[in-house]
Amino acid sequence: MVFPMLVLEGRAFIQGSFKQCAIGIEDGVISSIKKTLHGDDNVDYGEFLILPGGIDLHVHFREPGLTHKEDFRTGTTSAAMGGITTVFDMPNTMPPTTTLREYEQKVEMAGRKACVDFGLYAALSKPRETSRLAGAGAPFKLYMAQTTGGLDVPADDVPGLLKDLPPVYPPVVVHAENPAKFKATDARTLREHDLARPVEAESSSIDLLKAMRRNFHITHVTSEESLESVSSSGFTSDVTPHHLLLDCTRPLGQLGKVNPPLRQPSEREAVWNAFAGGRIDILASDHAPHTEEEKSVNFADAPSGLPGVETMIPLMLRKVRSSDLQLDRLINAVAERPAELMGLNKGFIEVGRDADLVVVDSHSVTKVRGKKLHSKCGWTAFEGWEAIFPLAVYLRGNLIVDKGEVAEDSIGEHVDAKVPAKRPEPAKKPGFGAALQQGAPR
User: Fold this and answer.
1) What are phi and psi of 341, to 5 degrees?
2) Which entry of 89, 117, 194, 286 is annotated as an active-site residue?
3) Could you read off the pLDDT of 300-314 as tens digits, one per residue?
4) pTM above 0.85, yes or no
5) What is the CATH number of the domain that holds 422?
6) Active-site annotation holds for 286
7) Are residues 314 and 168 in the same domain?
8) What are phi and psi of 2, to 5 degrees?
9) Which domain holds residue 292?
């Protein structure tokens, strides 16, 4: 069968550098990359940057059961508007995703609504379901401390849950906090919340996992001490924009309450330096929306979590423009490494890969406004921050975002996690920030 060819022209990030080229797309896949191509439809983006679509390995789209906060349509629309073309949704919904039946029902539901491609985690919590879920290609999330959803598992029970996993499998994603290290106090401020769930709780939880001889991925790391534990274990890790950019001195009150907590400025700075230097594999949003009403109660009763899938890449692109971050480091963290970790045919602009592409006009700096974002919750902890949102977003060659508007929706497809393509590589040398810092000529 002969498929029509779409050609996108621009400055594309290919094999570690930007090249002015034409990208041919047929049947949703990149079919050729050349200096010039003549297709059935040519779109010339001039000197604008063409980046691989982002992959967010940590979102909470709240469906089923909590759709007053978010649902798969609003959540994936937010993802698309922020340059994310694949998401992995967490299992702490109502009911939680703990059985094969619940997993299959959620796949069917999300497939009707998703604007971007999606994977779904199952909770590692029911031993007899583990092998069945693994057979269906579900990646797993392990909660080692209480958080939204009540799926926490005592450390002593974890080995029994792991025994039915295949010996070679995508890494189990872990919320690593050790409840034995929590302080018995009702926190009333962000600083007190930090003290109540201290750094030691996080790092000691990672240390508990080392003896289990499994492939773990530690999500939302928040401290240098935790990074040292990750490094000595050989695990992979990710960090969120809020732990990179915010700390417990910010006047956010309950809006900034999250698990693990926002830390002291010195910890935030250490984690930023680690991320910028390549010591943290992946950037993930931990998009966890609650309504403003839910967040407006007293601090101790306010739920933990904040939205972030739509602003993650735009905020970081602004950091690239201000020379605080190299663009190749950002691309590695939001596209390349997530694709490798989950064994996806995405994350790179290469022949044979899915044509998930993001077009960026680096002159287009705007301010983040919660009411203009597409999450159902309607607020952001980054109100008024500068960001660079995508000009266009393509999912498997389909234009899904065009000039700040949704161009096509509900075309997302389910993706299975597979064995990682390769082990982590050393961080690349700094190099390609200038493409965005200088701006693309008009």
Assistant:
1) -65, -40
2) 286
3) 999 999 999 999 999
4) yes
5) 2.30.40.10
6) yes
7) yes
8) -100, 125
9) 53-342
